[in-house]
Structures are given as structure tokens and as C-alpha cells.
Amino acid sequence: MSLAATDKIAQQLRQARSLIEAGQRQQAFDVLALLASDFAGREINGSDASSVAELAFLFSQIKAWSDAALWFCKASELAPDKAIYHYNLATMLRVQGDLEGAEKALDRALRLNPADGEAQNLRASLRTQSESQNHIGELEQVLCKQTLPPKQQVHLYYALAKELEDVQRYEDAFTALKKGADLRRAHLNYDVRRDQAIMQKIAQVFSEKLLQEKAGSGYTSAEPIFILGMPRTGSTLIERMLGSHSQVSMAGELNNFSQAMMGQISSLGQPGNILEAIELSAELNFTALGERYIHSTRPDTGHKPYFIDKLPLNFLYIGLIKLALPNAKIIHVQRDPMDTCYAVYKHLFAHAYPFSYNLNELGQYYLANQELMAHWKRTLPGQILTVNYEQLVSEPKLTLKPVLDYCNLEWQDNCLQFQQNSDASATGSAAQIRQRLYTGSVGKWRYYKAQLAELEKTLKSGL
């Protein structure tokens, strides 16, 4: 490739990156599509691999998953010795539901770099391991190495715990899990008391009196359906069921509402801390906030009458949501407290939920979450629909029908065939939602009743 051609490609990639950072996703896609067309129209070789991989990465940043997978596949073919290209291909295939293809790509990545904990953990999550087909021995062997950085060790411990649980070696599974969680917690700067104070402040500021006084304005759009609550409660399942309805699209876990809120708060002044920001949030222009949120979700939304925003942390903003978007629907997914906390504890989150790596902190956070949710349901009577996970998996049609009624949607049988929904999913449940409905996660915490005894005591004392 000539120097001029190389410079042109680099310029196009920089342009696309800048457009993405500016939130101009459609314009970025147009630039990337033009570059992809150029690559497709000529012969490329190993020297192009890094540019092709960058193209794929930028496609993934604008949720063009199939394009990203196509070009990560091409990058891995051009440079088959680059483990990262196989790993990135696997992540895109998993998002699209090709779990078998994702596992094969991870096998290739791990043959090149077996100590890649993130690849090992992702591979472990793709299916239920069996006695005859698992990676337990490989994981234990890799963990014996003394030179692994902590981040890789954490991923490896979580992968080992998951596979040991799959083959019903529960005591060994919890031992591995606790090692991973303790190591992760040791590298976090976190104080659960700060989160407790934030939730208490929100309830104090958004009192029943304020919510009644400020009601009556807001942006009138009825498009958004917020599914929220604690993570790992089944919110992705209800999202996929609703998202299989012809009138509903799935926008994913959006940070848009909090970003729109913080943008407006900054225009009022610079709060000294988060508690001051909460106080300022009660003085926002709620109509402008709702409108700003809706427009910020484009182009992921707007092509169907309703869309789902499934960010669990939106439970913090329910008062603001109802003031800014009075016609929005809010669905709170509730699950058995111990099952919820164990499911959170055993999941390694990419960035969020720092409370999840210590059982005492997890219990304290859960209680604060429940207290705030009780506040919202008390101050906004009839405006939040609670869906019980255990009822949903045992009696799906009976449980889902009131959800559709609440969302002003007619019944469609497709909602019970959610596993056939080919739409992408980038959540932690991306593998599970490709399966038929199952009840195997109900009561799973009981396998660890002794290890979770203090957590159970904490929850019982506060509920």
C-alpha cells in the first residue's frame, strides 16, 4: 500500500473517531462504511491488519455489531497470530448470539495466550460446562503461575468458579469465587456509606411533597419503557420478552438519562459534591430534561412506538424520570434477596457495581436499594410496575400479560419466544437469553448457605 493510501486510511479512521466522540454516530457510520467499501474493493494483506482491526473497533463503538464482527474476522485472518483479534471477534459474535462461533474464536485466542483471564472468563460464560467438557484443569494450571497481574488473576478465578459450579463442585467453586472477589475488592477505592448517603439524600430531596408540587409538566413522549432495579434480577429476560413485541425496540443499557441530567445541572452551577448535585436536580427544567433524553437516544430509538432503556441504575432517578417523562413506563424487576445478592456476587462486572465484591457491603447496598424503591412506590403510587422473577420463569404468560397491559401493548405470542429474537445483546446475560426459559437459577444460593450465612443475617435484619 502506498504512503498516500496509508495516510488517507489513518485520516478516515481519525475522522470517524472524532465523530463518535462528538455523538454523531450516523456520520461516523458513513465514513466507516466508505472505508470498508474501499477495503472490500481491493486486495489487503497482513500490513493492513491493524487498520482493519481499528475499523472493526469503531464499528463496535456505534453498535454496528455485524460490521464489527465481519472486520474483526478479517483482521484475525490477516494476522492469525494476534490473540486480541480473535478475542474481539468472539465478543462481537457473542453479542449477536453466535455462541458456538464465539467459543471457537476464544479457543484460538487462548491457544496463543492461555493466561488471558478475560478470554478465559468469557469462554466459561458461553455455555454450561460438563464433567466431560470443561476447562477446569487448564484454568487451575494457569493460576499456578506466580507472575500474573491481579486483573488477570481475578478473571481466571471467576472463570474457574463458574466452571466448578457448573459441574456441581460447590465448595471449590465458592473458594475460587471468594479469592477472585477479594482480590478485586482490594484494588477498589470504595465506601458503601457513600452510596447509602446518596440514596438517602435522593429520598429526602424527592419527597412526596416535592413530587406532587412539581408534577404536571415534563416532556409528553410515551416512548420509553424503563426496566430497572438491582443487577442480575432478570431484567434482561423481561427486556427480551418485551423487545420481541413488534411495537418495541431494545436500546440497551443507556447512560443517557443521567448524562442529560448532569448536563442540565452543570448549567445551573458547579455543585461541590454529589449531594449538592442531587439538591440542584430538583430545580431542573423537567420538560427540557425529558426532551433532551429522548433526542439523545436517537438513532437507536424512534423507529418503533416504544423503546426499552434497561440500565439498572436508573432506579436512582425514578422521581426525576416521572417529572421529566410523566408518560414513561417504569418496570421494577424483583427477585429473591439471597438469589439476587449471590448472582451479583458471582458476576464480574466490567466497571460498575463496586459494592458487589464484599458480601457485607453487598448486603448493605441491597438494603439501601430496597429502601429507596419502597420510597418511590410510596410517593408514586400506581406508577411503577413490579415484576417478580420467580413468577416470570414459572408462569411466563400469566406474569407477562399484565406487563403488556401496563405498557398499553396487545398480546403477541412472539414475546414468549424471546430466545428466537436475533437482536444483539451486550449485557452480562447475553449467553443466557439465547436459551429457552429455565428455572435453574431459582434458589441457587442455597448451595452456599453456610458461606452466605452472614449475608442472610444482614438481609433478614434489614428487610
Automatic annotation (TrEMBL):
<keyword id="KW-0802">TPR repeat</keyword>
<feature type="repeat" description="TPR">
    <location>
        <begin position="83"/>
        <end position="116"/>
    </location>
</feature>
<dbReference type="InterPro" id="IPR011990">
    <property type="entry name" value="TPR-like_helical_dom_sf"/>
</dbReference>
<dbReference type="InterPro" id="IPR027417">
    <property type="entry name" value="P-loop_NTPase"/>
</dbReference>
<dbReference type="Pfam" id="PF13469">
    <property type="entry name" value="Sulfotransfer_3"/>
</dbReference>
<keyword id="KW-0808">Transferase</keyword>
<dbReference type="InterPro" id="IPR026634">
    <property type="entry name" value="TPST-like"/>
</dbReference>
<dbReference type="InterPro" id="IPR019734">
    <property type="entry name" value="TPR_rpt"/>
</dbReference>
<protein>
    <recommendedName>
        <fullName>Protein-tyrosine sulfotransferase</fullName>
    </recommendedName>
</protein>
